[in-house]
Write a structure and sequence with these properties.
It holds the Pfam family Histone. Keywords: Chromosome, DNA-binding, Nucleosome core. The chain is of the alpha+beta class. It has a domain of 96 residues: Histone, subunit A, CATH 1.10.20. Helices cover 44% and strands 11% of the residues. It has 4 helices and 4 strands; from the N terminus they run E-E-E-E-H-H-H-H. The longest helix is centred in the C-terminal third of the chain and has 28 residues. The radius of gyration is 37 Å and the shape is elongated. The termini are far apart.
Length: 165
Amino acid sequence: MVRAKKLSRKSNTSETVSVKQPGNKKKGIKNVGTYNSNTPSKTISGSGKTKFKPFTKPKISQGKVEVKKKSKQSKQIFKEIKYYQNNIGFLVTHASMVRLVRELTNQDVNLPYKFTRTAFEVIQEATENHIVKILEYANLVARHAKRVTLYASDIQLVLRIKSGL
């Protein structure tokens, strides 16, 4: 749009009026998926005021590759592994282990068994050690199958081998 001056005969003041020029744009070709300007688009309403629409990217260009999230997730996984390797505490909470032991020991007997705190700690230590060993062997089975993911079938195979088939 080109602005041209219009002189009025009544006064010497000049007013600007917009005149539309014919365009040289090729029709049918659109620039899909790109947007060069970050400025909001202008629209002129009926009252002559300029309103600004907020800038929104086209939907085609919004699809970004989520590489950063994977790296953050892998960093979080390695951080968790490091934490559990350096942690000397138990993996299973004490209360849930006590509940499980009491439930298993009092299934068939009318009189409840009594355990000391150190007995629960020894049972929990042995149980966690056994579970960790089984998971280590299952991880070796998964690596032998050239996989990184541990499947339930790997754990079942380890248990079958340990029990002697």
